[in-house]
Amino acid sequence: MSTTIEAPRSPYSRPPRTRGGVSWEKWGWIYMRASGVVLIVLIFGHLFVNLMIGDGVDALDFAFVGGKLSNPFWQVWDVLMLWLALIHGGNGMRTIVNDYTTRPMTARILKAAILAAVVVLIVLGTLVVFTFDPCPAGSPADLLPSFCPAS
């Protein structure tokens, strides 16, 4: 019985893919690069508007946040930043799980937990941005901020 050993400097060849379809790892890699570039713009724009324009950090209060979240432009900006950052972070955590877990069941459980956390945070964050009302109707006047019209 003889076995053939390949030459040590022969190029590595992967076995042919038996499953067709989308390469999720490739698209995950592309997403990380694209979302990273967009997040740089979104985050630095967010920091510049919040900290540099006007009175700077002294102007950050409930009225400032209420004013920003009542503007559709800033709602979209903040939701886009939220979604991209959470999916970017979740994809990064998934990559770490893939790299460091050895048992398939452990990897599945960890990835399911990451997915659940990302989905819950995206849903809650999006709801907060689009349903935030600093002056809810029917609230006692003494509990409302000073910028709310008297009801």
Automatic annotation (TrEMBL):
The UniProt record lists the keyword Metal-binding: yes
Localization per Swiss-Prot or TrEMBL: Membrane
Region entry Disordered, spans: 1-20
GO cellular component: membrane
Membrane-spanning parts: 30-53, 73-91, 112-132
Name of the protein in question: Succinate dehydrogenase
Keywords linked to the UniProt accession: Heme, Iron, Membrane, Metal-binding, Transmembrane, Transmembrane helix
GO molecular function, one term: metal ion binding
Top-rank taxon, per record: Bacteria
Pfam families from the UniProt entry: Sdh_cyt
